[in-house]
Amino acid sequence: MHEPNVARVLAEISETDRVLDIGGWARPFNRADYVLDAEPWETRGFYGSGRPAQGGDRERFAKERWIRRDICDHTPYPFPDRFFDYVICSHTLEDVRDPLWVCAEIMRVGRRGYIEVPSRLAESCRGTEAGQVGWSHHRWLVDIGGTHVRFLMKYHRIHSHWRFSLPASVLASLQDEQHVQWLFWEDRFTVEEVTIHGVENIERELESYVASVRPYPRWLVTGDAAARRAAGLAGRIRRRAKRCRNSMRNCRSTYA
């Protein structure tokens, strides 16, 4: 969970509230009364001491309230409607095969809560893993706008050409809050899966997102020969100006 949001989540939860953490195995939220995850209780805290648990100094959940199951299995979670006052699902929806089902169950068993996923900006960058765009185990490109969550399959085409992804320099320039996106929700939120048919349409969607960020020079994107020559000339002028400035500094130091 994005660290600055931890305090707000805790502030929204009273001492008597029942809290569920869905998919919290790698970094459990200690304030949760229950955890729902496919991995066993004994192996929790995969991130280790480098990224310690959040949500308090001690675990409020216990082994008997760690429910191990496939969260995408189309069997309702073992809780009545609105059983939880608060449901947390952080960095899980982008991993699983059916995030729409998980979202539906989140809203069924919870009254309000917090969702966090990687930003589409970060997920579209090269440089996270060698030869990959974004994280290799993530299935979805996610956009959150208002109280709406949009899931787009992370089509393999995104790895095939620079036009469909962002350079590693963009990833390196992101602030912490730009790596993630989140939703504090109450009562309900809306969710959809967007499906694109045809390679050309997939490419158009990916290229359109990259163009909205504008990470590449215009001549590279358009293939405009005149713009490419102009960019090359501007670069040569900058380099020569830099050499002149360096020469002048050297002369001043010599005769000072």
Key features?
single chain, 256 residues, alpha/beta, Rossmann fold, six-stranded mixed sheet, three-stranded mixed sheet, globular
Task: Tell me what you see in this structure.
This protein has 256 residues and is α/β, with parallel strands linked by helices. The chain has one domain: Rossmann fold. 32% of the residues lie in helices and 18% in strands. The chain has seven helices and nine strands, in the order H-E-E-E-E-H-E-H-E-E-H-E-E-H-H-H. The chain has a six-stranded mixed beta sheet. Strand 6 (140-145) and strand 7 (148-153) form a beta hairpin. It is globular. It starts with a helix and ends with a helix. 27% of the residues are buried.
Taken from the alpha-carbon principal axes, the silhouette is: globular
Q: CATH fold name, please?
A: Rossmann fold
Report the β-strand fraction as a percent range: 15-25%
Biggest beta-sheet profile: 6 strands, mixed
Strand order of the largest sheet: 3-2-1-4-5-8
Q: What is the CA-CA span between the terminal residues?
A: 57 Å
Mean pLDDT: 90
Can you summarize this structure?
This protein is an alpha/beta fold and 256 residues long. The protein has seven helices and nine strands. A six-stranded mixed β-sheet has the order 3-2-1-4-5-8.
Task: Present the secondary structure layout.
Elements: H1 3-11, E1 19-22, E2 34-37, E3 66-68, E4 86-90, H2 99-109, E5 112-118, H3 120-123, E6 140-145, E7 148-153, H4 168-173, E8 180-186, E9 190-194, H5 199-213, H6 218-222, H7 225-255
Parallel strand pairs: 1-2, 1-4, 2-3, 4-5, 7-9
Antiparallel strand pairs: 5-8, 6-7
